[in-house]
Amino acid sequence: MAKILMVLSAADSLTLADGTSHPTGYWAEEVVRSHQVLTEAGIAVEIATPGGRAPVPDAGSLPEGDENTPLFRAYLDSIDEELEHPKKLSEVSGPDYDGVYVPGGHAPMTDLIDDPDLRRLLTRAVAKDQVVATLCHGAAALLSATTTDGGFAFADRRITAFTDEEENTGGLGERNPWFLETRLKELGAALETGAAWSDTVVVDGKLITGQNPQSSLSTAKAVVEALKEIPNGTARDLHGAAHIRRYRETKGADGHDWRYGTTILLLDSIGNKSGEQRTHALIYRPWNGAYLVVASKGGADAPPAWSLNLKATPDTQIQVKDQIVPVRARVATPDEKPAMWAEMTDAWPDYDDYQARTDREIPIVVLEPTGAARPA
């Protein structure tokens, strides 16, 4: 099952151009229509906000007397538990999701435009060619994504968003502190907009953007279509013992190619205390005839058990696809590590995040062949 992280703003007010405060929140139609289409398509949706604070709907999106308001309220009530207890963006791990989806309302123009955790998630999603989807003012969240040199991560990408014309004719007009379409253009995005209030969706690879609330259904449907193209099929959902078992059974046909271009080897180690053989499925990259793996378990302060096992018994074996390779393990030297680290973070950008979570210097382990490979 594919899984989407729906990021909502936790802001309930927007500071206007004249310095006054304007009540805001997420736009109900955009959340309801999107959540409904995704879940009905069998896609798991989890909601996160900055700080894990409960988001609120913009009162303007639930007008009294509108025929849709009771329907929207009923749906929001049905997901009340998710809305009242969202995940904290700071605790969300990018590899757990197949993409990020940001609905609008004016609220994203406050706390999502420069959020470091959203920056981490969006940057990773772009690097791994995951789905990134925004609706209406949700495109303000894209502003948080910067490149290593400080540029805009979505420069030159085809994007649509709530237009300046829509802001002036049905939004906040000149009271708006800044205009989203203008800001995105200034940063180099290739804006493509339809007529005001038209159902307009722009698809640029895995980047999917909807112009306004009227585009909610079409945007969500485009995301559903994009998620049908998840790389590696069901193999991407393999984990732990099931991953190892399937890898062994198929000689790597299932399990070697994993999530978003990563590759997996099976490493055997001898338990430092038990003396028993253990097998571990690890992301790897080839390196000058050797194999690189990263000795981390999600940024925990303690090293993974397999790395301690290898320290005590460095001679072991790995399985790469249908080949068993005898190897000797060693830790990369300080001179070697920068280039090797860059290689491994190219494979899995979250390693940088793991390092930021701990004071322990996460080592690169080099697995050097000590003999000829044999068939698995």
Automatic annotation (TrEMBL):
SUPFAM superfamilies: Class I glutamine amidotransferase-like. Residues 30-225 form the DJ-1/PfpI domain. Pfam families: DJ-1_PfpI (PF01965), F420H2_quin_red (PF04075). Keywords: Lyase, Stress response. Belongs to the peptidase C56 family. HSP31-like subfamily. This is Deazaflavin-dependent oxidoreductase (Nitroreductase family). It comes from Kineosporia succinea.
